[in-house]
Design brief:
By secondary structure, the protein is of the alpha/beta class. The chain has helices at 2-27, 36-46, 65-72, 85-98, 126-139, and strands spanning 55-59, 77-81, 103-105, 119-122, 145-149, 160-163, 173-178. It is globular. Bound molecules: S-adenosylmethionine (SAM).
Length: 179
């Protein structure tokens, strides 16, 4: 009997790995989450001067930790883009359970109308961020802010950076760029 459960667990594990590989081949971006602790640090900083009317977008949201945390802080207009159907379905179910108003779009953010965004959260790979930043600069209003986790944008100057872990001397950073 336990042999059957072991086999089932193995098959589910392999299916999930296979799913991630297929999504990676499609997007060239691994499905990795922003650690919740990092998001907590970021939001502690943002909550000082954030308006709850801000139009927020998360580009490639996976489990949408940033979007859910922003909504918890009172932000009302949040859209999360994600190509992985599995993640979108799970997030929509979570949103229903939490009575969340976040809009989850199973859509390529490169094809989306992002012109109304005022704050954009990004955790992707450098080549994809480079292309996305060009789109943001072309389509969004001056003043739109992109918060980027993990690496600097080549050829662009950030106006601010904050540590993901304030207690570590050698911490990674969130970088802030403005259109
Ligand atoms: C590194 S994960 C970050 C997830 C989440 N933003 C976070 O910080 O926890 C990047 C996500 O972007 C998604 N993605 C990559 N390219 C995309 C695209 N063009 N349109 C929509 N989603 C995309 C991937 O499927 C993946 O789930």
């Amino acid at each position: 009997m336990s042999y059957k459960w072991d086999l089932l667990a193995l098959l589910v594990g392999l299916a999930l790995i296979g799913y991630q590989v297929i999504m990676y081949i499609r997007t060239k971006v691994p499905i990795v989450m922003s650690p919740k602790k990092y998001i907590d640090t970021l939001l502690l900083d943002l909550k000082k001067d954030i308006s709850t009317d801000l139009v927020v977008m998360e580009m490639g949201s996976a489990w949408a930790n940033f979007s859910f945390a922003m909504e918890k802080m009172g932000v009302k207009n949040i859209t999360a883009y994600e190509l992985s159907p599995l993640h979108v379905v799970c997030c929509r179910l979570k949103a229903k359970y939490l009575q969340s108003k976040i809009i989850f779009k199973q859509e390529d953010f490169f094809q989306a109308d992002i012109s109304v965004a005022q704050l954009i959260y990004v955790f992707l790979v450098p080549s994809v961020v480079g292309r996305l930043w060009l789109k943001i600069k072309k389509e969004c209003q001056p003043g739109t802010i992109m918060i980027l986790l993990g690496h600097e944008l080549s050829g662009e100057q950030y106006f601010r950076k904050i540590k993901t872990n304030p207690y570590k001397e050698k911490s990674t950073y969130f970088y802030f760029y403005k259109v």
